[in-house]
Amino acid sequence: MRFKINVIILILSAIFLTQQIRAENLRFINGFWFDGKTFQAKTVYSLNGILSFNYKGKIDSTVDLQNNYVIPPFAEAHTHQFLDVMNFQEQIGDYLIKGIFYVKNLNSLPRFTIRVRPFINQPKSVDVVYANGGLTATGGHPIQIYTSLAQNGVLSGLTAKDVENEAFFIIDDEKDLAEKWQIIKSQKPDFIKTYLDHSEEYELRKNDEKYYGKKGLNPQLLPKIVARAHQDNLRVSVHITTSQDFHNAVIAGVDEIAHLPLEKINEADAKLAAQKKIFVVTTTLSHRDTSGIQNLDEFHRDNLKLLYKSGVKIAIGTDNMPTAAIEEAENIYRLKVFDNLTLLKIWTEITPQTIFPNRKIGFLKNGYEASFLALQGNPIEDFSNIRKINFRYKQGQLINRGQTK
Questions:
Q1: Residue 5 has pLDDT above 50, yes or no
Q2: What global pTM score does this model have?
């Protein structure tokens, strides 16, 4: 009963907050606007939350951007934050302050997103999509993580058995897939998360307990999962570890590869990934075990260069709470793979596309959402300016520091 009351209160609070947000017609002056190549001095308008570069009608108010440099908002393509077993309101505030408006959670329990949902996906907050539980094999990753969390009391009293078919789904064959697909769909995922882990050794690892948590789906099953998901208009993301995992993911036709592999990518696989328009998420700061790997920076540097040269869509993501996309972008900057312009476009233009592929975000163009950051300095000249945010607008609504708390 108490749980139901809390949910009702949260929903009513969200409705009240939403009703107080009134769309206005705004004129923005004295701003240098990013056009994909450089910054141009322009007068720009927000009409009911939509950008316009040529408007002659009524204006409610004018905003002086004080010669700031205007870019699209930042995005985070791989995290596991924004659950009610965490301080999600603090996380929302932290992301807004950092200018990260679009977020992709790649594995969670639906029961832990119920109380969060009234506070997200609205103009004054971050926008989040959830995969819910991921698809893996018996004893596969991430079963060991959720089992450990349950055993240590982190998951609000849930047992290890409780989290199965919610935090993860065991899919060992086509029969499992057919039987569990309706359960997966009934939990209303925004996309499907799958797991490959050392798939080149699938047969070796599948029945060996010493590989508990260090294996994943049968790679021959992944194309069937992708086909079923696509039939239901669900995109598929896949966790990988090795270069063979990357190869198997590309062959299966996934929409997104959630990590760089911890080995060098084959050039033919990179080119095929580009042809299939597959996104690859960086996660150079991932929590994955990299002990014993020599020259990890060199692997990341070489793979990023190859992917970019091949035309693959690269997205910024960390998979390393509480680290966020801003630290990931700064780490890639440290690797000196891309110039500042290229890295900025990867983060602000490409990354949002793999989170919300059907929305008009990521560009400052006519008809796109009036969401942007205004920086104190030019990030193309000095990348550290990404932390110097003076204005944050989301769908035509000003977000200031006080409102993020």
A1: no
A2: 0.93
